[in-house]
Amino acid sequence: xxxxxxGSTGTVGKEVLRAxxxxxxxxxxxxxxxxxxxxxxxxxxxxLYENLxxxxxxxxxxxxxxxxxxxxxxxxxxxxxxxxxxxFQARSExxxxxxxxxxxxxxxxxVRVSALGNSPERDINCLMRWHNDSERxxxxxxxxxxxxxxxxxxxxxxxxxLTQDLQTIxxxxxxxxxxxxxxxxxxxxxxxxxxxxxxxxxxLTENPEKHAGQSYNITGPDTFTYDQLAQxxxxxxxxxxxxxxISEDQFAENFKQVPSFVIWMLVKLYQxxxxxxxxxxxxxxxxxxxxxxxxxxxxxxxxxxxxxx
Length: 309
Fold this sequence. Notes:
Layout: E1 2-6, H1 11-23, E2 30-36, H2 39-46, E3 52-58, H3 69-73, E4 76-81, H4 89-103, E5 109-113, H5 127-142, E6 148-154, H6 160-163, H7 166-172, E7 174-178, H8 193-205, H9 208-211, E8 215-218, H10 226-237, E9 242-246, H11 248-253, H12 260-275, H13 285-290, H14 297-303, H15 305-308
Parallel strand pairs: 1-2, 1-4, 2-3, 4-5, 5-6, 6-8, 7-9
Helix pairs in contact: 1-8, 4-5, 10-14
């Protein structure tokens, strides 16, 4: 069995590889195939996992003419699909999955990473709308095929504190979020990406029929406001960290170096959080599927404490 990993060098993809590596052994390796635009980066990632037999196929999901389709789909039975959130996400995934369903003879399963709270009712420039459109596109393509589809819908990542907030936490002792206009702020059950990896590895290595047609909501075990998360982070690293609320325009200004669709994606995300309570929910899907308790925010910050100091 070979598992095609799309999105293997990012935050989530690396954790999927890590979890698959832990399920394998030197005498029972798991075969993976990585589609990547950066062959050198993918090679460095694969070196970390001795229990995986890896093959790298260079190419761009958004430019399928750059991909050797025969090489990519050869002997692939499972696919883990994670693409960059963008207004073009549904079109990219439709083109890619359409080819897979037609030409990947042994394909049995697609595991697609979506997002908790996606809906066709979201603003057209919100990532939750993009994920919904992409989900529907993939569902329609596999509907009358032998391929079994499983959707993963994780909540907001705790790892964002490392990728987005690390510098201000270290230099200013704070992190910034869009101000909430009502009540005591956002309530979000942030998820540790390691849990997404663990659940993905279970789904990708069990009988596809067991998870066919399922969607799994992946959350942390607690719901916190950002003030409360600042207190948890303070406890974990032994250094005071504060949450600083700012206006939407100030928040957008902090991201002025990125494409405009990314700025609007983030602004619309927090606008959705203001009116949508689904992201405060604590879901049991992770434990039902894996048999393990989800990692807590405190555990995440303790495990990464040295990086925040």
